[in-house]
Design a protein that fits this description.
five-stranded mixed sheet, alpha/beta, two-stranded antiparallel ribbon
């Protein structure tokens, strides 16, 4: 009888822990199924005055970061994105910032003030953000060399932390 109670107690603890893990998972919190492995939504963009498409970047690991100048967490993570760009650039990775700013002057001023070193694109109509289902900023998608989404991050990240750099070492090594 005592053994049965212990087993039942541990089963209840394991069940509760499983529920907590489920609620903590990003895909549950965001009310969406996992997007890992799905093809990244292609879109036109202008980089360095040249018209391109996201699909033109196949073969690179792309850190697709949606942001805005009026978003304090976006401002906070920009220096670490700059450092990550320098870390991954020579290894076939790149950050592609997608600003949803309507105000072109504010966008340009932000790029200068923050010394942004990664390519950016201004999506003033928010169509690209909408196509990705992005409504919380910053939001970032890691796109592998085949054009598939490897991971999604919601909210501000410390992109140059030891854990994040180890993650990018693994993704860039694939």
């Amino acid at each position: 009888m005592n053994l049965v109670r212990r087993i039942a107690g541990w089963a209840a603890v394991a069940f509760a822990a499983g529920i907590l893990v489920l609620f903590a998972m990003p895909s549950y919190r965001q009310g969406e199924a996992s997007i890992a492995g799905k093809s990244a939504v292609d879109f036109p963009l202008t980089l360095a005055g040249k018209s391109e498409r996201l699909s033109d970047l196949k073969g690179k690991v792309v850190v697709l970061n949606f942001w805005a100048t009026w978003c304090p967490p976006c401002v906070e993570e920009t220096p670490s994105l700059n450092r990550l760009q320098k870390y991954i650039d020579s290894r076939g990775g790149m950050i592609l910032g997608v600003s949803i700013d309507e105000d072109g002057a504010a966008y340009e001023q932000f790029l200068r003030d923050q010394n942004v070193v990664f390519p950016t694109y201004r999506d003033a109509t928010k169509k690209t953000a909408s196509d990705y289902g992005t409504s919380i900023f910053p939001e970032t998608y890691i796109i592998d060399r085949r054009g598939k989404i490897a991971r999604k991050f919601v909210g501000e990240q410390q992109w140059d932390s030891a854990e994040m750099l180890a993650y990018f070492d693994a993704v860039l090594g694939q």
